[in-house]
Amino acid sequence: MKVVAINGSPRHYGNTQILIKCVLDELEKSGVETEVIQLGGELVRGCSACNFCRENKNLKCDIDTDIINSCIETMSKADGIVIGSPTYFANVTTEIKALIDRAGAVGCANGNMFKRKIGIAVVAASREGAINVFNSINNFFLIQEMIVPGSCYWNTGIGFDIGDVFGDQEGLTTIRTLGQNMAWLLETTHKAT
Ligand SMILES: Cc1cc2nc3c(=O)[nH]c(=O)nc-3n(C[C@H](O)[C@H](O)[C@H](O)COP(=O)(O)O)c2cc1C
């Protein structure tokens, strides 16, 4: 079983990555293979609404000049997908929005190719707006017919400077529980198929 995590923060080793690592540590304890893709900080284009993905149906976005097709391909091969984003003005980062729009369009054009994969959102914020980021990422998962496990609180870690999330004990517990729930669901669904 494999899970890919996409870090949408331009701070490669910032709070989002710390939270992603908390999830991946729990998954690895259960024997799940993991991979992180660093998306934040990459130059990416948004969806151009060309609709070629609907014509081509080749599991790819017609824009092939940035990292998004590589993300889509890795996501399509994984059993689970973690999307992590810091909160930027109560929303996802630009890079995550580009991924959601383009992977979302390609997914819909190809018979919901991410269907029944397990998806979780991981959000860093310094104060407010994280719930909107959480909702945006979950809206992507849910319209792709993916399965979304929960945790004991919404999946947020609080901190401003790099490393501040280590001081948010409740957030870390929430994220570790989330990782355990994802591992349980992966194992359970894997056994059933
Ligand atoms: C452009 C920008 C906008 C931000 N907007 C918000 C916001 O709306 N709400 C919030 O709580 N924090 C906001 N922050 C703070 C980050 O979400 C916070 O520092 C987070 O921990 C960064 O995660 P990272 O270390 O993974 O980049 C913003 C930061 C930046 C750079």
Structural account:
- This protein has one domain: Flavodoxin domain (Rossmann fold, 3-Layer(aba) Sandwich).
- It has 6 helices and 5 strands.
- The chain has helices at residues 15-29, 52-56, 68-77, 94-109, 130-143, 169-192, and strands spanning 2-7, 33-38, 80-86, 118-125, 156-158.
- Strands 2-1-3-4-5 form a 5-stranded parallel β-sheet, sandwiched between helices.
- Helix 1 links the parallel strand 1 and strand 2 (33-38).
- Bound molecules: flavin mononucleotide (FMN).
- Residues 9, 11, 14-16, 86-90, 124-129, 159-160, 162 line the site of flavin mononucleotide (FMN).
Produce a short descriptive summary:
The protein is an alpha/beta fold. It has helices at residues 15-29, 52-56, 68-77, 94-109, 130-143, 169-192, and strands spanning 2-7, 33-38, 80-86, 118-125, 156-158. The chain binds flavin mononucleotide.
Salient structural properties:
five-stranded parallel sheet; alpha/beta; 193 residues; Rossmann fold
How does the SSE layout of this entry go?
Layout: E1 2-7, H1 15-29, E2 33-38, H2 52-56, H3 68-77, E3 80-86, H4 94-109, E4 118-125, H5 130-143, E5 156-158, H6 169-192
Parallel strand pairs: 1-2, 1-3, 3-4, 4-5
Helix pairs in contact: 1-6, 3-4
The chain binds flavin mononucleotide (FMN).
Flavin mononucleotide binds next to helix 1 and strand 4.
Helix content bin: 40-55%
CATH-defined topology = Rossmann fold
Shape: globular
Count of separate DSSP helical elements:
6
Q: What amount of the residues lies in strands?
A: 15-25%
Which architecture does the CATH hierarchy give at level 2?
Answer: 3-Layer(aba) Sandwich
Q: Stretches where pLDDT falls below 50 for ≥5 residues?
A: none
The CATH superfamily is known as Flavodoxin domain
Tally of extended strands? 5
Derived from helix and strand composition plus strand pairing, the structural class reads alpha/beta
- The CATH class, by name, is Alpha Beta
Present as ligands are: flavin mononucleotide
* Total domain count: 1
Order of helices and strands: EHEHHEHEHEH
Q: Spatial order of the strands in the main sheet?
A: 2-1-3-4-5
pLDDT averaged over residues: 98
How large, in whole angstroms, is the Cα Rg?
A: 16 Å
Q: What distance lies between the first and last C-alpha atoms, to the nearest angstrom? A: 12 Å
The main β sheet shows up as: 5 strands, parallel
